[in-house]
Amino acid sequence: MDADLSQGIALFGDFFDAIGLSVAIIDQDGRYAYYNQECSQLDEYTAEQALGAYLLELYPELDESSSTLLQALRQGRSYRNHYQRYRNPRGKAVHQVHTTLPLKRADGRIVGAVELSRDLTVVSPLHQALVDLQQGVAEEADGGLMGIITDDAVMKQLIHQARRLARADVQVLIHGETGTGKELFARLLHQEGPRAERPFVVLNCAALPEPLFESTLFGTVRGAFTGAEDRRGVLESAHGGTLFLDEINSLPLSIQGKLLRALQEGTFSRVGSGAEVRVDVRVVVASNESPQRMLDERKIRPDLLYRLNVGCLAVPPLRERLRDIPLLAQAFLRKHGKVTGHRVQRISHAVMERMLRYHWPGNVRMLENVLLRSLILCEGGDELDFLLLEEEGETAQRRAEERRPPAVPPPDGEGTLEQRMARYERRLLVDCLEGCANLTEAARRLGLPRATLQYKLKKHGIQLARTVLG
To answer: Helix 363-376 crosses helix 324-335 at what angle (to 10 degrees)?
Structure first.
């Protein structure tokens, strides 16, 4: 093994062990020189089995061209946030996003390659289900148009405007705070328009890792990357109908350009294919930020925004439509009545007054969750006579912890070695934190990863004011 590579592994080995990612390093011969515990869990090889072994001997389904580590070593190629699917030696499907880089000496000669990867094995089945099961069924609601329950003049005007946009079959941008009901308006646009009998497909852009966006939107062909299969994306699944892209401000700019072309030309290509697929789809998007803010913060391409913003619906927050709170509360009471066996039939006047005074930062979604939680904890009677707001739940938990008698540690000179070391470590942490502006600085002074410092603070019961959590 190259001396510089060996020295680098010795220098950074502890760091690689602490970052919580799979890290593998091969030398100039393609043999494993470093293989951490996360790699062992992912591929089910022990470090003893891997170290010194040639990469292709461990992964016979790979070859020189499909192994990113060998490509980095032989060709000097770099891969950043690269999605890969393969089967480990036991046949288990592994989904990962990795960054792979050649390791070079000062003179430019490549002496090895390193790969840092993040396991997506849990995320990927959700992604598969998302693509396969896009045609969701709108949730039934008691009363109200498409679940939109309102007696507010602004909301009624917004519904009227949405109906007119629906019949025009144009692209629409819906913006408003989280929990205001933007998806309900998207469903209204679909059901009131000429595509009502065709698919309504939903994609939450904030729910996907960046490397999966392109394959989720446009689909893949077999061989596009290791493990790729012929699969439609959500754009193709929505052909003839409506594609609703929620939280469009989370869509990477690189993908926005490809989406813009698909909207302009009506064609796109699956990942790994040069063949064009023609699609006829109406795109409705939503954002929890205003169009101007998205532009100012460069979260959306101006040309894509202008293409999508043919119609614009601004959904007001719940605190600006107080007349809707009693209607929504009664609707949620009926919807979730089964949690009390439909025993609770009404909401007390005092609770309703509290609802009207509260600012509802989470809007309609928060109102529903708070009412459901309160119903679950309502022990008797046919009237809901209390309301458990989120900060009150946190306060109650905090008070319970304060009432709990503290564990009394032995005096400093007594106790086991472990107890004495724990007391000493706690004092060191407190002394360091008192002289630091934030956790990052404290971690640097202590020579610890920030995550390790946070773990130790939790372990020793050290609580910080929010202003210190930098």
So the answer is: 50
Judge contact between 453 and 443, C-beta under 8 A.
yes
Distance of alpha carbon 271 from alpha carbon 287, whole angstroms: 26
- Which residues fall within 8 angstroms of residue 424, CB to CB, at 6 or more apart? none
Compute the distance between CA of residue 400 and CA of residue 348 in angstroms, rounded to an integer: 28
Rounded distance between C-alpha atoms, residue 4 and residue 23, angstroms: 18
- Report the largest interatomic distance among the alpha carbons of the chain, rounded to a whole angstrom: 80
Helix locations, 270-313, DSSP H: 291-296, 302-308
Locate the DSSP E strands across 36-182.
Answer: 79-87, 93-104, 110-119, 172-175
- Stated pTM of the model: 0.58
Residues 365-412: tens digit of each pLDDT: 999 999 988 888 777 778 888 787 755 444 444 444 444 444 445 555
- Taking only the tens place, the pLDDT of each residue in 244-288 is 999 999 999 989 999 999 999 999 988 888 888 999 999 999 999
Mode of pairing for the β-strands spanning 267-269 and 276-278: antiparallel
**Is the separation of the CB atoms in 135 and 244 below 8 Å?**
no
> Does residue 364 or residue 146 have the better pLDDT?
364
Q: How far apart are CA 15 and CA 432, in angstroms?
A: 22
How far, in Å, CA of 258 to CA of 269, rounded? 10
